[in-house]
Amino acid sequence: MTEILLLICAYLIGSISTAVWVSKGVFGIDIREHGSGNAGATNTFRVLGPKAGTFVMLVDMMKGVLAVRLALLVPYYRDPEHLVQLVNLQIGLGLMAVIGHIFPIFANFRGGKGIATVFGMVLAIQPAVALSCVGVFLMILFLTRYVSLSSIIASIALPVLVLFIFNEKELYYRIFAIAVALMVVLTHQKNIARLLNGNENKVPLFKNRRGFRRRRQDGE
């Protein structure tokens, strides 16, 4: 029963639709009506700029971290002898947060793709792996300015790191890492097509989006 309540709490944490709340509260728009239509960090970067995008990305990552940390509220899982059960519960809690992000109850079940939340949960479970993936993401983003490409490559790096670099032994964690890479590739098919066609938008890393506000004020 306790685990079920924790899973529900994890889903509710994931349902905090940061991109929607920031876009409506700060910019007076619904991010889902602009750009790709997704309520995630990538679309926020593209539409509202790097400051808003970075904030959304960090908060969405923290949703994954907090969801995973819920497992530590139960004394049973703090016992070193139950490490396997702890990891399994953490994976379940993290996945519920990701589902909440994709289908948020607080935003009419229209969310983002869950990439930042996935990396947040990995950060809480295996920090070294997550930080390595973040490093890959930032490097690709700096070189290409494509958030989608950065997310795809960082996600593919996850199972490589888990299986071959860090040689993680936990079976469910290995399966999870592979599943994440497949999920990201599948959910980014349109982005991949635009990348191949040269139509994918780049994010303005060193520019703000005051022009966006001016266009809104001018009625464009």
Automatic annotation (TrEMBL):
Kindly give the membrane topology term recorded for this protein: Multi-pass membrane protein
Q: Where are the transmembrane segments?
A: 52-74, 86-109, 115-139, 146-165, 171-187
Q: Extract the SMART domains matched here.
A: G3P_acyltransf
Pathway assignment reads:
Lipid metabolism; phospholipid metabolism
Q: Report the subcellular localization.
A: Cell membrane
InterPro entries assigned: G3P_acylTferase_PlsY (IPR003811)
GO MF entry, a single one: acyl-phosphate glycerol-3-phosphate acyltransferase activity
Which reaction is the catalytic activity of this chain?
A: an acyl phosphate + sn-glycerol 3-phosphate = a 1-acyl-sn-glycero-3-phosphate + phosphate
Top-rank EC class of the record's enzyme = transferase
This enzyme's EC code(s): 2.3.1.275
UniProt keyword terms in alphabetical order: Acyltransferase, Cell membrane, Lipid biosynthesis, Lipid metabolism, Membrane, Phospholipid biosynthesis, Phospholipid metabolism, Transferase, Transmembrane, Transmembrane helix
Q: What is its main location?
A: membrane
Gene Ontology cellular component list: plasma membrane
Q: Which GO terms describe its biological process?
A: phospholipid biosynthetic process
Similarity field: Belongs to the PlsY family.
- Subunit details for this protein? Probably interacts with PlsX.
Give a short account of what the protein does.
Answer: Catalyzes the transfer of an acyl group from acyl-phosphate (acyl-PO(4)) to glycerol-3-phosphate (G3P) to form lysophosphatidic acid (LPA). This enzyme utilizes acyl-phosphate as fatty acyl donor, but not acyl-CoA or acyl-ACP.
Name of this chain's protein:
Glycerol-3-phosphate acyltransferase
Task: List the source organism.
Answer: Chitinophaga caeni
Q: Which gene encodes it?
A: plsY
